[in-house]
Amino acid sequence: xxxxxxxxxxxxxxxxxxxxxxxxxxxxxxxxxxxxxxxxxxxxxxxxxxxxxxxxxxxxxxxxxxxxxxxxxxxxxxxxxxxxxxxxxxxxxxxxxxxxxxxxxxxxxxxxxxxxxxxxxxxxxxxxxxxxxxxxxxxxxxxxxxxxxxxxxxxxxxxxxxxxxxxxxxxxxxxxxxxxxxxxxxxxxxxxxxxxxxxxxxxxxxxxxxxxxxxxxxxxxxxxxxxxxxxxxxx
Length: 235
Hints:
The protein is 36% helix and 27% strand. The chain contains six helices and ten strands.
């Protein structure tokens, strides 16, 4: 397993991706972008990149906040995420900068790119598709679902949303609105809802039921298997 960091930028903002791939594989490989949760590009998504690489893809952890920027605790993480939630056009530029950086890597097949994301990163993956980007598939794990107000680009990607039924951060109305959005946009989309699962159900460190973030082993395993099948079909 080969891992490295890749520096790129969005305007004057320096960014740093984490990249993993199986160096024993030959030729250009399909690539899966991985979008981090509200804390920033951390060890959690780096491990996901390694797991993605073990499936035969290039795992590319996009950096949304900036090189070396991570939050600690609810207040810091909220402050880091808030500007991008308030300015979805800025978020669109930032996530597409990651896409272009991934396409520029020598080992990446730029015609076979997907994306996955966790929590805030799930929204990033969906917004990448909503931006009209030339990606084949996106997967949201317990992500936020609401569309930007000016969303109007043609969605080319297949879409898979993996959602915990007890997630307090995404209402039933938002789930319904997302389904309506995807149907009206004529997207090839799926929604998997996991019973008894709250927000952050893929993160073993999540253990705060009062906040609504709790790990769920069965939902974690089932959602990863669903993602594997979805990416194998799409990339």
